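ok trying this again, last paste got cut off
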Amino acid sequence: MKSDITGDDIPGSVLLKQDLGNVTGREFLDKIFYISDGIMLSRIREITGVDGSTLQNWVKRGWVPNTVNKKYSKDHLARILIINMLRGTMKLEEINYLLNYINDGVNGAYDIISESQLYGNVCDIIDRMTGDNDNEFKDLNSCIKKYTCECTSRISENRLRLEKVLEIIAVAYWASLFRKYSNNLFEQLKSSDI
C-alpha cells in the first residue's frame, strides 16, 4: 500500500515536484531565494495556494513574522510552508506552539535551527518516508537523529527538542498523505457502480 501513497508535491505548496524537475523541498526553497532576498505576497499565494487574507491573519496572530519592505524572506516562506503542510492534520495553535518550541517565537532571540533549515530537514525526512528507497529508510527516529546531529549544537536539550518536533511534523505530514489517499479512495467509491 505504501507505493500508492506518495508526496508528489513540494510539501506545503500546490506545486508538483515533477513540474519543477523533481527538486526536493530544500532545493526548491534555495532556488526561489537564489537571486532575491524576498518575495511578494502574490508569489506566496501562487506557491502555497493560501489566500492573502489567510496569510495576513497568520501575520496578525503572530504565527508568521511581518514582512520587510513588503517582502517575505526565506525563513518566512519556510514557516508558511510548514504551517500549510500541517494545517490539515493539526490545529494552527498547535503548529505555532510546535515551531515556538524549538525557536523563540517568530522573531526569536534563540533559535535552535532556522526555519528554512527546519523545512529542508523535514522535506529530506519526508522524501525518505515517501520515496521508493525502502531499504534506506527503516526507522524514523534514526533518520531524524541524522539531521539533528548535523545541525544542532552539542547541547543535548536542543537536540532532543528538535528531534521531537521533527518526529511530530513527519508523522503529521504522513497522516495528511493517508488522509488524501483515503479521500481519493472514497471519491472513487462514490463514482463507481459497484
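PB: full thing came through this time. Helices lie at 25-32, 41-48, 52-60, 74-86, 92-102, 115-130, 140-151, 156-191.
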